[in-house]
Design brief:
Elements (H helix, E strand, L loop, with lengths): L7 H6 L7 H8 L15 H8 L3 H17 L1
Helix pairs in contact: 2-4
Length: about 70
């Protein structure tokens, strides 16, 4: 499961399907983190603050996606 204190690159790596869905969630929230060098140094919360995104809503959406993988 994702948390707001995780490094962004680690959050992206949670998507073991390589579908890009977590990257898409971040993108929908104004965070194009995939190729950003800061994604290896900053937490999800730090990135959300920098981009004016709601980190709690993003974490919930990411975790809902990850949970759906376990159900299927």
């Amino acid at each position: 499961m994702a948390s707001k204190d995780m490094i962004i690159a680690d959050v992206l790596a949670l998507d073991t399907t390589n579908s890009g869905e977590i990257a898409a969630i971040l993108q929908r929230n104004g965070m194009g983190c995939g190729g950003c060098p800061s994604s290896r140094m900053k937490t999800l919360e730090m990135g959300a603050k920098a981009h004016g995104a709601n980190v709690d809503e993003m974490v919930e959406e990411i975790n809902n996606y990850l949970q759906s993988l376990k159900v299927n």
